[in-house]
Design goal:
The protein has 14 helices and no strands. With 293 residues, it is mostly helical. The radius of gyration is 25 Å and the shape is globular.
């Protein structure tokens, strides 16, 4: 009996240690970027691994003083908020409509939407379509093409089908139309799946940069993620190499690395701050939809 208890305790301790090590491996790269973004250039040359050294916020001040950074933050926040709101509303409404038995060819329409998850026209047809729609160097490029997603429609439809049909029937008896039923009954009752879709969509919108890369040449419409990509795409001088050069070149190279660390943190922090508050709705929405599906 005692041996069994000792084995159980040993297993729990070993399992806990393994999970802690695994969590540390997953978190450390982000933590490394964070502490280096708050460390001085001399400390970065020596190596910063666990705690900020020569604490400074100069890199963040330099970023915010650049004219394109605040504007890019505004563009990224705007596309995330507006794009998420439009995508969630359109996808949920479409998912609701394909649950209506009175809708002609609803099953065929729904299957056509599903097919888009498996087949794509490709980059060149997409580029030509965006040009023909007049979305080049247009802020609507960030919002309209993703106004509805097939995966979002599946999640919304599955969840809406779990709502008792008697709720909708009673509203129809009282004379409510489709729009009234959706916005006043279905949408409020679907908040868990709406929050789930909002998490998916907001993360996708915030992290997106390819549409900016292909179709936006106006610097005033650049997103924060595109600026990060452009900064990281240039070859970064290794700190071990610049130590042999002059102090001026070394400080300049290290300063550029520090700015890239700071810019990386600016792109990551908003999602890290929002996601924990949405996680409980996210899990609930996924589980309820999975039970029905």
């Amino acid at each position: 009996m005692v041996l069994s208890i000792v084995k159980d305790k040993f297993f729990q301790v070993a399992n806990l240690l393994i999970l802690i090590i695994f969590a540390f491996i997953c978190v450390y790269p982000l933590y490394f970027v964070f502490i280096n973004s708050l460390s001085g250039s001399n400390a970065m040359v020596r190596g910063v691994y666990f705690f900020p050294m020569e604490f400074t916020t100069d890199y963040y001040k330099q970023l915010l003083s650049m004219p394109n950074i605040p504007r890019s933050i505004f563009i990224s926040v705007s596309r995330t908020i507006l794009g998420t709101a439009i995508t969630v509303t359109c996808s949920t409404f479409f998912g609701y409509m394909v649950t209506q038995r009175e809708l002609p060819f609803r099953k065929i329409v729904y299957r056509f939407v599903i097919v888009t998850m498996y087949f794509s026209a490709g980059l060149i047809p997409w580029y030509i379509l965006m040009l023909n729609l007049g979305l080049k160097n247009n802020f609507l490029l960030y919002i309209l093409p993703g106004a509805m997603g097939a995966y979002f429609v599946i999640l919304a439809k599955t969840y809406i089908e779990s709502i008792p049909i008697s709720v909708e029937e009673s509203a129809k008896i009282d004379g409510a139309g489709v729009m009234v039923i959706f916005f006043r009954l279905i949408l409020p009752m679907s908040l868990p799946i709406v929050a789930c879709l909002a998490v998916f969509c907001s993360v996708g919108q915030w992290n997106s940069w390819t549409d900016n890369f292909y179709l936006v040449s106006d610097a005033r419409l650049s997103t924060l993620q595109y600026l990060l990509y452009m900064n990281l795409s240039y070859e970064t001088a290794r700190i071990s190499d610049v130590t042999a050069t002059s102090d001026l070149l070394r400080d300049r190279a290290v300063s550029q690395i520090g700015l890239r660390y700071s810019l990386s943190m600016l792109t990551v922090l908003p999602i890290l701050c929002v996601y924990p508050f949405m996680q409980r709705f996210f899990v609930k929405g996924i589980m309820l939809g999975a039970v029905k599906g």
